[in-house]
Amino acid sequence: LASLTNNSQFPGPRWGLLPSEDAVVFIDNHDTQRTSGSSILTYKDPKLYKMAVAFMLSWSYGFPRIMSSFAFQNSDTGPPHDEEQNILSVPVREDHTCGNGWVCEHRWRQIYNMVAFRNIVRGVYEVMV
């Protein structure tokens, strides 16, 4: 990765990508997360997932979108619900994580700290990794 960051055009149009101001970047979304046989990172591999989100948030390319999801077993799993199919509320614990089957990746300490970092350094400098 370090050798890639020496290119002032990475990522961007030179690599066949959109200009930064037109790009939305993400690690996973509600579709890719549930793709069978997919190599997409999700909350189910928390260490790698947190590292990928940290990289995304440390790089100044695009507008980042952070996933906030619920636990699922397969692509047909719907949001947490009661026996009458009413969607359960999202309780927030003292450590800021969620319960009732909600994953809430955006509330993971490592991720909300990287959001704060990105907000603080916005426009100041490129993070070299």
TrEMBL record:
Cross-referenced Gene3D superfamilies: Glycosidases
Matches recorded under InterPro entries: GH (IPR017853)
Family matches, as SUPFAM superfamilies: (Trans)glycosidases
Family: Belongs to the glycosyl hydrolase 13 family.
PANTHER family in the record: ALPHA-AMYLASE (PTHR43447)
Protein name per the record: (California timema) hypothetical protein
